[in-house]
Amino acid sequence: MEKLRCWGRSLESSKPYIAMISLQFGYAGMNIITKVSLNRGMSHYVLVVYRHAFATAAIAPFALIFERRGQPKITFPVFMQIFILALLGPVIDQNFYYAGLKYTSPTFSCAMSNMLPAMTFVMAVMCRMEKIDVKKVRCQAKIVGTLVTVAGAMLMTLYKGPIVDFFWSKTIHPGQSNGTDTAGTTDKDWVKGSILLIIATLAWASLFVLQAKALKTYKNHQLSLTSLVCFVGTLQAIVVTFVMEHKTSAWQIGWDINLLAAAYAGIVTSGISYYVQGMVIKKRGPVFATAFSPLMMIIVAIMGSFILAEKIFLGGVIGAILIVIGLYSVLWGKHKENKEKEVNEEEIPEPVKIQANGNTILVIEDIEASEVELKKLAEANKLSAVAIAMPMPESPMKANQDQTSFKV
To answer: Quick one: pLDDT at residue 171?
Structure first.
């Protein structure tokens, strides 16, 4: 019986780890499938439209079922927040990310996406949502981590270096390429793809900063907010696609890898992953969830070399290592900051009962004011507790008793 309880506890504690590892495999699959679809000629503008149409169809029913009551009113400021969120996420971020993925490789794109925590920190500082105290170690860690992350991204962008061969790539793909090989990519396209990925990450970081404000309105209706953002983003992406894609044939989609890429990205990456990641963040915090992102890069590197015969360059490996080091430095600083906030919240002064001249007083003020009141009450208690010795006259009855006993 005791063994079953221990097994149940260990299984319960391992659920967040299993969920986040499974999520990284889901993200890795999205990158591989999308890369194949883009290389076969699908427009990334059309892919963004179909992806968020699938995401809206997947999330909206759950929002209607679980969050029907108490919906916030969509005023003009709230609508503008949703509009800008949709513009930053589904339109700018996804289009630039897919374009960068087309010019580079899945592993390179995943490595660049690890810059997100550092860029979010920079955007929060610029918007005055984050304060910097250089004297504190946690702030130093976030600053150093941001600089290291930027250095890794610059190295990956400007330096390719020789190809790094893995032992399994020699046995599975001996000189074979299926059209997805990045070795033939020109340096000009590589730099262009890197810049597009950096812009996509900046847009995603801006989305996180603005989303923090929008969540104050939709605090208890996060599924509804996600559904609205995906729906408005779909409409915006349609407009962008009509402007950028003049061929009607680009909208055609059949039962092929293009449909799989759109459905997989919409349902798994934007639907299931949202729910799983939300549950993990609620239970273990955002730092725990973000710490697994480098695992996706490793999975994509292995899957890409197996499936796509992807070539990985030395500059990408060194840059990815620097980005991961910077990522964990920023996450460590953020973790320390969250711990300090928890400690400060626990140190809120509780009501204190004080006896003063027979009366009970509850002191629930700030610390400095309470200390002043305590001193005053202590002085009052001292005055009331002083014992004054004075000669008291004896009672007549006691005097008569003494006289009677003396006569006897």
So the answer is: 52
The model's pLDDT over 58-68, given as tens digits with 9 standing for 90+, comes to 999 988 888 88
CA dihedral 10, 11, 16, 21 (to 10 degrees): 110
Query: What is the rounded CA–CA span in Å between residue 174 and residue 100?
Result: 27
3-state secondary structure of 361: strand
Contact at 8 Å (CB) between 310 and 182? yes
289-333: pLDDT as tens digits: 777 878 888 888 888 877 777 778 888 888 888 888 988 888 888
The strand ranges marked E within 2-152 are: none
210-215 long-range contacts (CB < 8 A, ≥24 apart) are 210/81, 210/84, 210/85, 210/88, 211/85, 212/129, 213/81, 214/78, 214/81, 214/82, 214/85
Query: What does the mean pLDDT of the chain come to?
Result: 77
Q: What's the pLDDT score for residue 235? A: 95
Cα gap 276→269, rounded to integer Å: 10
The residue type found at 34 is T
* Sign, Cα dihedral of 228, 233, 236, 238: negative
What are the boundaries of each domain within the chain?
11-346, 352-407
